[in-house]
Design brief:
Helices cover 14% and strands 38% of the residues. The protein is mainly β. A hairpin with a 4-residue loop joins β6 (111-120) and β7 (125-134).
Amino acid sequence: MTLFGNLTNDGLEESQDRLGGREIFDTNVYDMTIKALYAGQSDGGAHCLTIVGVLPGDKEYKETIYFTNKQGENFFLNKQDKTKKVPLPGFTTVDELCLILTGEPLSKQATEEKIVNVWNKTEGKELPTAVPMLMDCLGKEAKVAIVRSTENKNKADGNGGWTPTADTQDVNAIEKVFHPTLLLSVPEARRDAALAEEGKKPLGAEFHDKWVERNAGKTRDKRTLKDGADVKSGRPGRSSTPPQAGEGKKAPSLFG
């Protein structure tokens, strides 16, 4: 069965053995093999996918990406035109990842219940937990553009929310996904497929090299507080509440 059939593009514009903390990777494009890809939901109702991948050097990369809001919607309304639905960035990332891994979007991914270690905030440790695993994605490869950013650490404000502090941390996030051999992004694959239907020559991969040239090795400063002051307004930072972790006919593959 699939959990994501309603999330389509239609209408959208104990003590444990650990060697220190999670490794932070420099901004670049990396080859990744999917070790695990499973669904979850925040306490507030937002849906997410947790990606566990293997990078060169047998290094593990793990990230949880939220792809809906608390209402389970994978879009927001354009501020200038409320009739236009804009896909959430997280949805675009996980949908394109599924397309590159399997040739099918997130909405067509079937799941099976599997047991993995998941962080339990009540117990304060990882515990074996049943999760919906996207089985067709396992063992597949993709190239992922990982960004390294510096952000403020958050602390609980006592009212169920979070507020930024002057303390900082470096974090990673997948910004773009490419085909492992063709280097095509999903928009480029769609463009070339349309050109081929018109009898025109495909343009091939262009964005991958441009992304690397512009971003590789750079750490982005995403702090909202610098020296205790709000970056935009000069006032102390305001409280924010980020999400909390808690068959149909097949279309031809975009990648041939």
